[in-house]
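Query protein
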Amino acid sequence: MVNKTRVSLPPDERKEEIINSAWHLFYEKGYSNVTIKDIIKDLHIVKGTFYYHFKNKEEVKKIIVNRQIKTELRSLEKIFNNPNYSTLEKLSNMIMEIIDVYKDTEKIHNVYTRNPELFQDILIKRMESLEKIMEKLLNEGIEEKVFNPSYYDEALEFLVVSLSITLPIIHYTINLWPERKAVLKLNVFTYNAEHMLGAKRGSFDNIKSQYWHIVKDTSIGTIKT
């Protein structure tokens, strides 16, 4: 058996290497099944090298979760700050951006089933991070008279929960339903969105149509009829 020789790396590169190794192992085995010893063994480093950069495995997980959310948030802010988009176009593109995270359903399935801790942390962090940008979007829609919510706080919470949890879960499971049921779920969402935000009936038809087009393109072979 040939022993691998440890290569000396600058601290920043070594830290990045540990994060990447940990994420790979979390994905393959599940967060709760991975130990610091596993990460050390994977990289052929000594225990002290890991603890030089991190206090524990939890700290590595937090970095991975924060990076995921920061990437999502940058994309959403770019959409929101685009002057060529109307409020409804911004919301539509934000929805598609969030859904795009779930395009690799096999990978997402593995993350969810093997890493409930990561899944939980991502959802919570996503909701916390989305509140500010959704508040800006809601206020802009009110100013443009596109939205007229009866209950402001509830409307804001609806947007945050919808983009953080409801739509990702619908998208993640939509190809498991008969087509008529999948369509019904989208109809219910768009109806509730228009009601909660005080938008005119049919305001979300374009969003629904755009989303359904994506579903049909990616999942038509597996949607039951």
